[in-house]
Amino acid sequence: xxxxxxxxxxxxxxxxxxxxxxxxxxxxxxxxxxxxxxxxxxxxxxxxxxxxxxxxxxxxxxxxxxxxxxxxxxxxxxxxxxxxxxxxxxxxxxxxxxxxxxxxxxxxxxxxxxxxxxxxxxxxxxxxxxxxxxxxxxxxxxxxxxxxxxxxxxxxxxxxxxxxxxxxxxxxxxxxxxxxxxxxxxxxxxxxxxxxxxxxxxxxxxxxxxxxxxxxxxxxxxxxxxxxxxxxxxxxxx
Length: 238
Known about the structure:
Elements: E1 2-6, H1 10-20, E2 27-32, H2 35-44, E3 49-52, H3 61-67, E4 73-78, H4 84-89, E5 94-97, H5 102-120, E6 136-141, E7 144-149, E8 153-159, E9 162-167, E10 171-174, H6 178-184, E11 190-194, E12 197-200, E13 206-207, E14 211-214, E15 217-220, H7 226-234
Parallel strand pairs: 1-2, 1-3, 3-4, 4-5
Antiparallel strand pairs: 6-7, 8-9, 8-12, 9-10, 11-12, 13-14, 14-15
């Protein structure tokens, strides 16, 4: 795969470039410090995957991506988890938080390879598999598979070997463990607040050191999970 790095931070470029050297079947076409430079490269070179920063001068990463008619696969590389939902809605392959480890980079590249293989060898509709990174999931509830938009999910509650998925307008109960549910949801948006609860970080309305509140539902913070939840919320304080 031909790769393009678009990032205005020299250190970030060096880290990504170093990781890419570990993969013999990847070729780094160019390194760009701005979206405008990336435009020029894309006009001249065949690029399969872009490692794209979000916050850049003049034109941010998402605006750049939206401007492309037939964009290559994109892996977002950013220091901010706040843009994750928009990234999934733009159908990015993966969303990597800086500093990026080699292990996490490897996972993103494997997803990109699977996506490329699916495009080159499309299966028929009956064999269709939903992409790992999407703005929705399908939930088996009352003998039907129901489409649920990720942004509408408020929280997920464990009910032994089932979970209750509470959204803005509906509630679904499905036969799956909360651990498997956690694996299916993007971890930049959903976080374990308690052994029995997964919550949408962007739906939290108020909180203390022992609980959070989402749509009048008080959810306890478990000792094993509260540090990460509070760390995210405290970054939003003014």
